[in-house]
Amino acid sequence: MKLTTRLSAAVLICIAASVTAGAEVRLHSTIGNHMVIQQNSVMPVHGKASPGEKVKVSCSWNDGSWTAKAGPDSLWSVPVEVPSGSCETQWIEIKGENRIFLDDVLIGDVWLCSGQSNMEMPMRGFPSQPVEGSLPEILSSGRYRNLRLFDVKHNYSYEPLTECGGEWLRPDPSTVPFFSAVAYMFGSRLSESIDVPVGIIVSSYGGSRIESWLSKEVISSLGPDEYLAKADKPYRDPYTLYNAMIVPISKVPVKGVVWFQGESNRRNAECYAKMLTEMMALWRKDWSSPAMPFIICQIAPGKYSGPGELGSARLREAQFKAASEDSNAYIVGTSDLGSLKFVHFPKKKTVAERVLASALVNVYGYQGIPGSGPVFDSVEYDGGKATVKFKFAERGLIPSDQEIQCFELAGKDGVYYPATARIGKHDRSTVEVTSDSVPEPCFVRFAFTDWHCINLYNCEGLPAIPFRTDNIEYR
Predict the structure, then answer these.
(1) Which residues lie across from 200 on neighbouring strands?
(2) Is the dihedral of CA 117, 245, 308, 409 positive or negative?
(3) What is the pTM of this model?
(4) φ and ψ at 216, to 5 degrees?
(5) Domain that holds residue 40
(6) pLDDT digits (tens, 9 = 90+) for 246-284
(7) Cα–Cα distance between 451 and 406 in angstroms, integer?
(8) Same domain for 202 and 336?
(9) Is residue 331 within 8 Å of residue 316, measured between CB atoms?
C-alpha cells in the first residue's frame, strides 16, 4: 500500500512539473542576451508557450507593450518596431506565466554569413590547417565591444523546422577561436567602420552543396539535370540545410548576406549560376527583403581532383555570372589566395577585408575605393596582339613593372597557349597580351584554370576576376 502511494505521489509530481514547464514562456534561440537587432526594421520577438497563453513584450526603446497569444502549436510572435541603431545598451522584457528579462541588447546591423567549409573554418583553424595571423586576432578580440556573434548549430532536416541551436556571444579569447574566421574578421572590422553595433550570424556547413541551401519548392522547379538529387550524406541532400539552418533564422531581420560556397558543386558547375540566382531570390523572399545584398566570395584556386573538366574555373565563372546579372549582388575575388596543399587556404583575413571593402562601397555607399577588383570589359585583336580593357581600374592596373601572369591566347581553333602580358603603356586600365604560338589570336582567357596564382590588381590592391572570351562547353 505504501509503495502504491509513493508511486502515485511521484506520478503527480512529474505531471505537475511537466505542466509547469509547459506553461513557461520560452524564447527562440535567436532572441537572447547580447543580441544585436537590425536597425530600422520590424523584429518579431517570438518563441513558445502553452497554447492560449498570453505573452506581453516590453522594450526600452518604445513606450507601452505588445501582447500576443500562443497558438495551438504553442508558437507566439510579437512584431516590434526597431529604431535607428546606437551603441546604447537596450533591454527587452517578456511576461507570461514567467518573466524573462534580456539586457545587453544592441541595435545596429546584422549580417548573415553562410556557405561551406571555407566560411565555417574557425579562427583557430582546422587540424594542421591554420588561419594566418589568428593568434593576435584572438588575443585582441575583447576590444570589439559593439560586435556580437551567433553560430547556428549544425543540423539537417527533410522538413522545415522552427527551432535551431545557438546563442548570442560577446567576442573574447574564449569564444572567437571557435567562430568563423572570415565572418569574425569581417564583423570586427565592420564594427569599427560604421557608427552602430554589428551582429554576425553564421549558418554554414563544411562540404555542403548549394542544393542543400535551396527549398524543396525551388528544387522541384529545376530540371532533373540541373541539380544533384542525392548525396553520400544527408546534409548534402537537396533542401536539408535550408530546412534546418535557414528557415529557423529567417525571422531575424538582416542587413545582407555573405556567401562563400561552391567547392562541392564543381561536378555540376554548368548549373550553379542558375541555382545561386534561385537561392538569392528565395532568401530575399523569406526575409521579405527584395533588395537584400549578397556579397559572393569566389572559391579559391587549388589542386582539385575528381570528375568535371576545369570544374573550379567554371564554378568561379558561374559565381561571377550570377553576381553580375543581379543588381544587388557583388563578387569578391580570391584568385591570388589559394593553396596547392589545402582547399582550406590560410589567408582568411584578406578575404574578410575584401568583403568589408565590397560592403562599405556597394551597401553603405562609401566612396574613394572601387567596389570590386578589375573586371573584364572588352578586347581588341590587332597585329597579333589582344588588348584587354578592364573596369574598376580607373587609377590603373598594377604591377606595371613586371609581366602579368595567367593569361592565355587561342586562335580560331580554340587551343590555348601561355601568353606574355603587360599593362598597356598608353592606357593603364588595359593589358596587352601576345604569344608566339598564336600569331592571329581570336580568344583570350585569364586565370581560367583550377590552379593559378594571379598578380593583377587595381591600384587599390583588389585582385582581377578570372574570365574567358570563348564559349567552349565543358563537362
Answers:
(1) 111, 149
(2) negative
(3) 0.94
(4) -60, -35
(5) 23-106
(6) 999 999 999 999 999 999 999 999 999 999 999 999 999
(7) 10
(8) yes
(9) no
